[in-house]
Amino acid sequence: MNIFIETITSADPSIRNRSFFDISRNLSANTLLKALRELDEFRKSTPNLYDKVRAILFLYAGFRFFLMETKEIPAIGKIPYAGFDDLLSRRFEQAIATFLQDLDKQGPNATLFSALADSYHQLSFQTLADQVRKSVRSSKGNQWMFRVGHQAEHPIRIHPSLLNRPDNSLFYPILHEQTSVRMDLTHSGWSDIFFLGMDYPEGARVINISIDLGVFGRDKDIRPPLHCYVRVISEPVLRLTSVDLNTTKDVHDLADLFNFGNDYLSLVKAGVIASGLIPPSFEGTNQSLAEILARIVAPGMGIELVTKVNDIPKGSRFAVSTNLLGSIISLLMRATGQTKNLEGGLQESERRLVASRAILGEWIGGSGGGWQDSGGVWPGIKAIQGTFAQEGDPESGISRGTLLPRHRVLQGDEVHPDIQEKIMNSLVLMHGGMASNVGPILEMVTEKYLLRGTNEWNARQQTNQIFDNILGAIKEGNIKKLGENTARNWEFPIKTIIPWASTYFTEQIIAKAKKQIGDDYYGFLMLGECLAVAWACL
Q1: Which of 27, 48, 306, 344 would give a disulfide with 229, using CB separation of 3.0 to 4.6 Å?
Q2: Above 90 in pLDDT, residue 431?
Q3: Would strands 381-385 and 238-242 be described as parallel, antiparallel, or unpaired?
Q4: What is the DSSP letter of 261?
Q5: What digits encode the pLDDT tens for the residues 311-350?
Q6: Region 297-304 average pLDDT
């Protein structure tokens, strides 16, 4: 049996978790090329998502890191223009077919292998993105948004109380939603990114805390930093405003609403769509937005939505964008009767629906992300874990795990009564440098998981013990133990899986914090590219 296919399909962990690199080092160039061609046929025929994506990444790594570099293959060659054109146009299947045909006709060369490697690499993430969208669309509570074809079928209406204009007032009532952000104590090696969580649910384990913020010396109290407001207006438009981005716009038609590149309001637009106010099934139709709003609100009427983020720097890794999406979605669901209560807390089923739609909003808007990012929708300290797919789940037969995890708010004996106060009084927040794009990091995490590099896989196994240790520290109220384990998590698993997670600037911050705080220094927690935390006895 083909050694790569055996590795991918085996139920035996000792075979399934073999390193692609260790296997390939022992194969000659001709043997490896033959095995990869067989693997290409396998990935086309398998219905299993994991098998398909892992096979595609094996193909990418084989062509890129082995066949391109071997001295047995000419280093210089040509690639067919038709394949290059398909690659640039994101027609990856067609590009691969063209390049393989040329390989059969002209023979191998490193240039052609480079083109194949890039095609396979991009195809793997396109395949993953398509499956995530499919899973989100199939989630309970989201299905109707993809089935409504015409405004006459649109089921939601504005809540009657938002149409009751007070006496002697020109304005309709304002509904306000405020939402916390989240800080994760461990993400177990980015285990919440979708493919990893769906394929390896037993290792998808996150502990995060919903947090409110205030600026010392300026704010009188600590409060949720994300705010959204909605009201009815006497114009047949969607008026969208982001206070922190200093941007406002009247959306008059569906084409503008579904265009995420013509303004700075892509996240707000995605929230409107993911909430079901204007469902995603309306994209590309020629329906009048004014007529849709007439059905939802009243003839000649529209909706104004305002968002505000209170002074959180970019790159904070507080999951501001996802939780802002969740806040927009919660607000608009309340405003259109999709929740039991207009005000007050959400029910658990409603929180899960908001989280699912926040994921949808991220993929609609093109930002992606992980499932822990909407953690601010749940209060308190949460242990969030992947779940295995069961019969009836949209992921059943496609992946081992489900798209959405199980959120467990820690309470009772699981949490020391003073832990929140202890955490708040032990944090030293520091500026961690420039913000950067996390997208390439998450892609590398997915690649390293699927290719099973020996060091990276061993590091991932360590995250389970660290997760348990942090849960224990929270139960005991032991900040020193908490700091030691977040520092251990940073120094070994995170930096082993992705060495680029750290920089010289970050390492200097840690060294200076240790020196200045001295014996009271307990450990380090990297929040994001621009914020970092030292645990200390203060």
Answers
A1: 306
A2: no
A3: unpaired
A4: S
A5: 777 766 778 888 899 999 999 999 999 999 999 989 988 9
A6: 97
Q: How many CB atoms lie within 10 A of CB 195?
A: 25
Strands 238-242 and 247-251 turn out to be antiparallel
Residue 229 forms beta bridges with which residues?
176, 306
CB 20, CB 58: distance < 8 Å:
yes
Sign of the alpha-carbon dihedral angle for 99, 103, 106, 112: positive
Angle at Cα 275 formed by Cα 270 and Cα 281, nearest 5°? 75
Q: Based on the number of CB atoms within 10 Å of its own CB, is 377 exposed (0-12), middle (13-18) or buried (19 or more)?
A: buried
Burial 105-129 (b: 16+ CB within 10 A, else e): eeebbbbbbbbbbbbbbbbbbebbe
The reported pLDDT for the residue numbered 456 is 92
Q: What is the DSSP letter of 338?
A: -
**Whether 372 contacts 182, CB under 8 Å:** yes
Structure tokens at 25: 């080092």
Question: What local confidence, expressed as pLDDT, does residue 434 receive?
Answer: 58
Task: Report how far residue 37's alpha carbon sits from residue 224's, in angstroms, rounded to the nearest whole number.
Answer: 54
Q: Say how far apart CA 422 and CA 538 lie, in whole Å.
A: 10
CB 531 within 8 A of CB 313: yes
Nearest to 119 by CA among 64, 185, 68, 170: 64
pLDDT of 436 above 70: no
pLDDT value of position 312? 78
pLDDT tens-digit series, residues 74-103: 889 999 999 999 999 989 999 999 999 999
Handedness of CA 141, 387, 49, 355 (dihedral sign): positive
Q: For residue 417, report the phi and psi dihedrals to the nearest 5 degrees.
A: -60, -25
Look up residue 209 and give its DSSP letter.
E
Structure tokens given for 54: 């892992």
Cβ neighbourhood burial of 160 (10 Å; 0-12, 13-18, 19+)? exposed
Of 222, 221, 196, the C-alpha closest to 210 is 222
Which residues, at least 6 apart from 116, have a Cβ–Cβ distance to it below 8 Å? 59, 63, 96, 99, 100, 103
Q: What is the spatial distance between Cα 118 and Cα 447, in angstroms, rounded to a whole number?
A: 13
Angle ∠(467,326,332) on CA atoms, nearest 5: 160
Q: Which residue type, as a one-letter code, is found at position 16?
A: R
CA atoms of 243 and 431, how far apart (whole Å): 24
Is the CB of residue 435 less than 8 Å from the CB of residue 313?
yes
Q: Where are the alpha helices (DSSP H) in 140-287?
A: 194-199, 254-257, 266-274
Whole-number Cα distances in Å, 196 to 397, 400, 460: 16, 10, 11
Tokens standing for residue 151: 């405004």
